[in-house]
Specification:
Blueprint lengths: L2 H37 L5 H6 L6 E6 L3 H14 L8 E6 L1 H9 L6 E3 L4 H8 L9 E6 L1 E6 L9 E2 L2 H10 L7 E5 L5 H10 L3 H4 L3 E5 L2 H9 L5 E5 L11 E6 L7 E7 L7 H14 L2 H9 L21
Parallel strand pairs: 1-2, 1-3, 6-10, 7-8, 7-9
Antiparallel strand pairs: 3-11, 4-11, 5-9, 5-10
Helix pairs in contact: 3-11
Length: 316
């Protein structure tokens, strides 16, 4: 091929490429205008992505109820085949700490507190829906300690004297350590502190350590940073507690632990999200859910009906 013919061919090729690019540009512009005219606004990548995302609700739960709530979420998902467990996100902590986060605008959708005070305050402060208040459980306290050869308590500590005798006779170091949840922010810690106040003499030989919440108090016991702990009866069901013994403390010896839940107000909650939230809220009131709650060591809403939990006792 002569050089003159080569340059002529190259010019034709450049013109063809330019025309092709021009046609492609016009076609894409037309398509974009058509989409805009049909919807009123152009689609964005984030909008396209969001159309395929699962609706999620965020559940704030007091530490004592975390494992029970997970069981409830699992049961709810089985009952509603179109709902996935991952659509219900659980965030746990001390009731007081979670309450503070909600007041500061944390995007929670529902709050399972370990008391009634915080849910009622959220309603009063217009952060929660008044008609969503529901007392879902009544907690119980246990004493937990490593298994020992001697029997330290019967199935339960029924009165003040039996409780004092237990602490007086507990065999450990000269100054044993007792772990409780922080009374300032955790209702289970508050009630545990009531027990300590029953006898200054009995507890004078104990070093009291306070966990951030009742799960942290349990961790102090498991990590051998405490000789015994006052925990939620629900924690007796944890696999990690297999080598520990428990004494159920009679509920007359401490401040009642009534636990309530509320739906948190959110200005921009989607309708599908609200529907999922209502479904789960209504599920908690069902007999199936109440059975799960009872089986984890909580009293039901009749107050006096005993828990289904079998508390372990020390060797006879």
């Amino acid at each position: 091929m002569h050089y003159s013919q080569f340059f002529l061919w190259l010019k034709k090729l450049s013109l063809t490429a330019f025309l092709s690019a021009l046609i492609l540009c016009v076609t894409q512009t037309y398509a974009a205008e058509k989409i805009t005219s049909n919807t009123g606004q152009a689609f964005t990548d984030s909008q396209l992505d969001n159309s395929h995302k699962d609706i999620v609700i965020y559940i704030a739960v007091a530490a004592n109820f975390k494992s029970t709530l997970q069981q409830l979420v699992n049961a709810f998902a089985l009952e509603q085949p179109n709902i996935k467990k991952k659509q219900l996100k659980i965030i746990s902590g001390a009731t007081g700490a979670l309450y503070s986060q909600i007041i500061q605008g944390a995007p929670f959708d529902i709050f399972f507190a370990a008391d009634t005070k915080r849910p009622l305050l959220l309603i009063e402060k217009k952060h929660a829906k008044k008609d969503s208040y529901y007392s879902y459980a009544h907690g119980q306290l246990i004493l937990a300690f490593q298994a020992q050869e001697q029997k330290l308590c019967d199935r339960s500590l029924n009165n003040k004297q039996s409780l004092i005798d237990f602490f007086n006779n507990f065999q450990a170091s000269s100054k044993p350590t007792l772990a409780i949840a922080n009374p300032a922010i955790a209702p289970y810690g508050w009630s545990a502190n009531n027990i300590i106040k029953l006898s200054e003499k009995a507890f004078s030989r104990y070093r009291i350590v306070k966990g951030k919440n009742v799960l942290h108090a349990q961790q102090l016991l498991l990590n051998s940073n405490a000789d015994l702990a006052i925990l939620s009866a629900a924690q007796a069901t944890h696999v990690a507690m297999d080598n520990y013994e428990f004494c159920l403390i009679n509920k007359s010896l401490y401040t009642p632990i009534e636990q309530a839940m509320v739906i948190i107000k959110q200005d921009h909650r989607a309708s599908r999200q609200q529907h999922l939230l209502n479904q789960f809220f209504n599920f908690i009131k069902k007999e199936r859910a109440q059975s799960i709650i009872s089986s984890n060591g909580y009293l039901n809403n009749e107050h006096n009906k005993p828990s289904m939990l079998l508390i372990k006792t020390g060797p006879v």
